[in-house]
Amino acid sequence: MPVLAGAPLSYPTTNLPGMMSAHEVVAAYWAAAEARDWDAFGALCADDVVYRGPQTREQVRGREAYIRFNAEGFDYEWHVAVERIVGEGQHAASWTEFTAADGTMVGLCFFDLDDDGLISRITDFWPEPYELPASRAQLVERY
Question: ∠ CA 127-118-114 to the nearest 5 degrees?
Fold first, then answer.
């Protein structure tokens, strides 16, 4: 499985999504998001893409609605840094750090690609840190 760790965000401008691996599609997705290049971002998504955010129970259906959600839905300065992407076949997952004025959040995002190599489903988790429960303290090593 290809892995990207600590590499600068970039995306190919000559390849069509159907000619890219799942890893490359997701790397291009995050690079386009960071660059606020909504045309490139949208070109990676299927017409009927579905975005789901389980914590907030948000769902967005369709490419145009999803582009608008990202372009207009965050009225503050933010940046995304990719820590790792793992992809194989029509599936990929990414670990990102999303930074805004009020701090940094870790995001885990799962992607499904359609037969044309476009992103058809995104499930986006933004886990908040929590303290280790006392019942597990003796079972783990802290770092």
Answer: 90
Residues 6+ apart with CB under 8 A from 131: none
Q: Does 110 have pLDDT greater than 90?
A: yes
Q: pLDDT digits over 76-85, tens only?
A: 899 999 999 9
Rounded CA-CA distance 75/52 in Å is 20
Helices marked H in 12-139 = 22-35, 38-43, 63-72
Domain 20-127, CATH among 3.30.70.270, 3.40.640.10, 3.90.1720.10, 3.10.450.50: 3.10.450.50
* Per-residue pLDDT tens over the stretch 2-29: 334 444 444 444 445 667 899 999 999 9
Maximum C-alpha span of the chain: 53
The angle at the Cα of 86, spanning 80 to 89, to the nearest 5 degrees, equals 125
Lowest pLDDT segment from 19-23, 28-32, 66-70, 121-125: 19-23
How far, in Å, CA of 93 to CA of 119, rounded? 12
Token pair of 89 as six digits: 């076949």
